[in-house]
Amino acid sequence: MPRPILATVHAAALSHNLARARAAAPDARVWAVVKANAYGHGIERVFDALRSADGFALLDLVEAQRLRALDWRGPILLLEGCFDARDLELCSRLGLWHTIHCDEQIDMLAAHKTQVAHRVFLKMNSGMNRLGFTPERYRAAWTRLNALPQVEEISLMTHFSDADGARGIAHQLQAFEAVTHDLPGERTLSNSAAVLRHGPAIAEKSDWVRPGIAVYGSSPDFPEHSAADWGLLPTLTLASKIIGVQHLVAGDTVGYGSSFTADGPLRIGVVACGYADGYPRHCTTGTPVLVQGVLTRMVGRVSMDMITVDLTPVPDAGTGSEVTLWGRASGGAVLPVDEVAQSAGTVAYELMCAGAPRVPFSTD
Questions:
Q1: pLDDT 10s digits, 102-120
Q2: Nearest-5° Cα angle at 82, 76 to 86
Q3: Claim to verify: residue 209 and residue 251 sit in the same structural domain
Q4: CA 230, CA 292: separation in Å to the nearest integer?
Q5: Which end of the chain is more exposed for a tag (fewer CB within 10 A), N or C?
Q6: Active-site choice (35, 241, 275, 349)
Q7: Residue 216 annotated to the active site
């Protein structure tokens, strides 16, 4: 019998969350962002649920090939563009749209011999200070691209650094609009946080929106808002079972380093899940866990293959009982991945992307 751990992708929840993003920006087309193997869910597992998107956005050429192999004939956008001149040939062959964020990428395109002109997205660094041309250099880059016979159409792009927080998007939006107000081309500005928090402010400024984490059921501004606050559903459940039970008395410790000491009689369940499965090692005593759909807590340290949980709230639980590490329990109770990530001092993105190869997946 296989080890009792399973990751389940919830197709209906993916479709629901994509529709929720679309409803927040009803006049824009929607990229479903599927980078990092669809945030750890698996491109092939999410494809049918997300095929109502207007396009898919990602980073990796191999992932773009996987989408084309699934018979997707619509737009695919490479969010970081091409890394090598040879990548442009694959863009031509697969009909990929790609980002231009530096002079070197323009140079590669200018030297590219192609019979098929490219759709490119010229990225502005409006304050994120990762990729893109500064506002002072943006129009010169646009002029260079516009003169190339290799370019069919130029779209305009930026990325918000603080859409999820108090600083907001106004400063970047102002920088973007000051330079691009009279340039032709479609605009794509908004990530999940901007779509959900600032939809009205950008409703007439975005032809395309780029929801990522929201599609996968995580709140882009947790803990200010939960996923439920935004009407999002969990798309990934990590579940296991109790494989052993221990009875402690006052003074007994649990796990490596004896980081947890019982202050009285305590039943603990040993769960088949550890950091080798992608469960965050930095989770500590108190991290929420569902046992048989009932909220309880982890105690002690996370081991490679096991964690231990307090069975006090579920006195009838024992070996074989269902444990939901995050996601949706079989009875319908939900443990948001954001809450587990918070206990680990990280974000849901990392938990979703950290699934280990040894964990089997299913789709419902």
A1: 999 999 999 999 888 999 9
A2: 110
A3: no
A4: 26
A5: N
A6: 35
A7: no
